[in-house]
Amino acid sequence: MALVIENREIGPQLVEMIVEAPRIARKAQPGQFVIVMADPAGERVPLTIADFDRQKGTITMVVAVVGASSLKISRIGAGQSLHALIGPLGAPSEIEPHGTVVMVAGGVGAAPIYPIARAFAEAGADLITIQGARNAELLFWTDRLAAISRQHIIITDDGSAGLKGLVTQPLGELLAADPSRQIARVYAIGPPIMMKFCCETTRPHNVPTIVSLNSIMVDGTGMCGGCRVEVGGQTKFTCVDGPEFDGHLVAWDQLMARQRAFKHHENCAMERQAAQAVCE
Amino acid sequence: MTSPRKPLAPRTAMPEQSPEVRIHNFEEVPLGYTPEQAQAEAARCMQCRKPACVEGCPVQVDIPAFLALIKQGQFVEAARKIKETNCLPAVCGRVCPQESQCEGRCIFVKRGQPLAVGALERFAADYEREHGQVDVPEIAPPTGRRIAVIGAGPSGLTVAGDLIRLGHEVTVFEAFHQPGGVLVYGIPEFRLPKRIVEAEVEYLRRLGVQFAMNHVVGRVVSVDELLTHEGFDAVFIGVGAGLPQGLNIPGENLGGICFANEYLTRVNLMKAYAFPAYDTPVARGGRVAVIGGGNVAMDAARTARRLEAESVDVVYRRSREEMPARAEEIHHAEQEGIHFRFLCAPVEYLGDAKGMVCGIRCQEMELGEPDASGRRRPQPKPDSFFTIDVDQVIVAVGAGANPLLTRQTGDLQLNKWGYIITSETGATSRPGVWAGGDIVTGSATVIQAMGAGKIAARDIHRWLARRSESTDGAPVETLES
Q: What's the CATH number where A103 sits?
């Protein structure tokens, strides 16, 4: 059981949750995740540790409501408890400050990218962040990201905030304007399709590009193999070998096919959750 | 003087749910003996002076003694007799491979009618539990020593049960949200109802064992920290062999292919068979192929049958004789209409345009000379390729050592496969750290893991006693007392 300290709506279908977890907070590193179960009948859902406070013994997660299970988790308010909270899981990010680092966050990807970006900034990297979303309402933590970045670029699909377009546009421009190769590394975290196209953008420039995958998984400790992904022709487990991988080596299309495995179930579960919401 | 050979009374059959009924539910298949049936079966025991059955038991249960008690109608006493050496009889009576252990050594095996030791063990344990006769044994005075057990599976639960009785403080750390290890995530409800595991865990709680759930040791805390910062005097590692293995053939990462670990964990631990009352989904229906011939393969195949599969094919590269699954599971699977394809080795998984598996390209095999395991080695027949059409594949070809914990633990010697090297008593290369079960032996049985736990618990106790003598001169009670 983990006590929810704060549950705050930060956008449509977006909830920021601060949870009491002293043991996890003590060990958490940027790039790691937890598994959350809302109640005893709940699914085990992986969520990135978006922030942690070792002193207060808390961790922060951002829950995007995309299905029945995330909806259930998002409804657990302050003073209530999560049935289970397991972590920190996954390998921590490798924080090596080398020159300029461009961090690209797509949608809810701003949550996982924040602790990594902060660690790079604290380690002395020259940080540029690109934060994209479908529209202005879905942007969050822009101030936090701006505060640690030398340059912070906002871009939305509809132009309701910042530039209009996709994150790959400013990313491509930054790379094109960098013939002397100051940009040593790119991070891209967001939906698989966005990460795939960021990798296609950086590939011709040969800039190492790290992505963080959010695969379907059950245990999160290397036991079920549900989160496996092909990276450079080898099978890797997102939960223990990742979640971060060299994006240029990820077999994206296969990954996206595997992510669709339970689409039908998701629709069925969503209908049920929606029905319950009406009853409440 | 030889007496004329008496005709042998036949083994008492266990009542079961009929195959037509049980393929539509997840209830237990064998229904258990009635007291009359149990007494009749136990009365068949010859009370051999040198009982071979006991030698065949990895934890040396005094089988003739408990059978005699059942014969006399002293069912609770029979359960307690078993519990002198086996703390999980309701589990072992259901999942032990008796045909290769106790029952396989029974004097009547040659005549095809060995004593039903497993069914009787189950009967005694169920009787004791269902009649509220489980009593808490006397616990030795507190020693002030603290032991951390990592993994709440068969070996860890055994270590916890043995050490708590000797007066030590025991905390069991478990990565999942429920204790039981393979008993809850691996073995299906229809073979081992989860309420039985819960009752065993509840019993340990009553003895004073603490359970720290949702703790992935190696991540949230390390073995080193348990010993240095958290004040534990000794650590037992019983984390199992939970790293799934595949065949390493093309197409293994297509959609619709999963390891048995994932499939069974979804269904058993997460109760996906009751979706959407439980939130975890699992694929249902369709044409299912299960790769492998062990107990896990049987569990997966029989689970798929219950999840409305149109057809279930078990694909195994050797023949029926070499199958490592328990005889009862194979028999039950056949009754349930599961189709076996023997001497059939997958060489490639075929995918459709959406990246989902739609077929398995296989090759026919024939048996050659025996290999290292003593089983005849399968060899491919030339030009014998064919394709099986499938919608889902469950891979159950074994598991390896999960490196998550061992990699994080200093001074722990591993063998080339990543399993922990221990002495005969379970001591690892690291002082104060013991290990047992599948993380030492590789995939084995519940009872073997329990046997390893028993031996390690005894050694941990001796080691703590020696340490107490050398530090404060107050020896803790010995196990023999």
A: 3.40.50.80
Domain count, chain A: 2
Percent residues over pLDDT 90 in chain B: 78
Identify the pLDDT of residue B87: 83
A229 lies in some domain: no
Taking only the tens place, the pLDDT of each residue in A92-121 is 999 987 789 999 999 999 999 999 999 999
Same domain, A115 and A77: no
Domain containing residue A113: 93-207
Test mutation, B171, B213, B220, B273, chain A, max A CBs within 10 A: B220
Residue A181 at interface with chain B, using a CB cutoff of 8 Å: no
Q: How far apart are CA B229 and CA A246, in angstroms?
A: 36
Residues ≥6 apart with Cβ < 8 Å to B475: B465, B468, B469
Say whether the ipTM exceeds 0.85: yes
> What token pair was written down for A117?
């970006």
DSSP sequence for B192-248: S-HHHHHHHHHHHHHHT-EEETT--BTTTB-HHHHHHTS--SEEEE-----EE----
CATH of domain B146-242+400-472: 3.50.50.60
Counting one residue from A and one from B, how many pairs have CB atoms under 8 Å apart? 119
Domain boundaries, chain B: 19-130, 146-242+400-472, 246-397
Measured between alpha carbons, how far is A170 from B5 in angstroms, rounded to an integer? 93
Report, as an integer, the average pLDDT of B168-186.
96
Query: Between chains, do B177 and A27 touch, taking CB under 8 Å as contact?
Result: no
Give the sign of the dihedral formed by CA A154, CA A160, CA A166, CA A170.
negative
A83, A214, B279, B471 from A39: Cα distances, Å: 5, 21, 10, 47
Q: Is B282:B267 a contact under the CB 8 Å cutoff?
A: yes
Counting every residue, how long is chain A? Answer: 280
Domain end marker among A207, A237, A260: A207
Residues B363 and B384 sit within 8 Å (Cβ to Cβ) = yes
Residue A188: name the closest of A101, A279, A95 by CA. A101
Give the A window 35-64 contacts with B, CB below 8 Å: 37-38, 41-44
Q: Which of B214, B220, B261 sits opposite A224 (nearest CB)?
A: B261
Residue A82's CATH number? 2.40.30.10
Tell me the C-alpha distance between A224 and A64, whole Å.
25
List pLDDT tens digits, range B426-479.
999 999 999 999 999 998 888 899 989 999 999 999 999 988 776 654 444 444
Contact assignment for B280 to A218 by CB distance below 8 Å: yes
In CATH terms, the fold of domain B19-130 is: Fumarate Reductase Iron-sulfur Protein; Chain B, domain 2 (1.10.1060)
Q: What is the pLDDT of residues A170-192, one digit of tens each?
A: 999 999 998 888 999 999 999 99
Tell me how far apart the alpha carbons of residues A64 and A109 are, in angstroms, rounded to a whole number: 10
> How many Å lie between the alpha carbon of A253 and the closest alpha carbon of chain B?
8
User: What are A162-165's contacts with CB under 8 Å, separation 24+?
Assistant: A162/A131
State the best of B178, B266, B279, B354 to mutate against chain A, taking most chain A CBs within 10 Å: B279
Q: Does domain B246-397 have CATH number 3.50.50.60?
A: yes
pLDDT tens per residue across span A154-173: 999 999 999 999 999 999 99
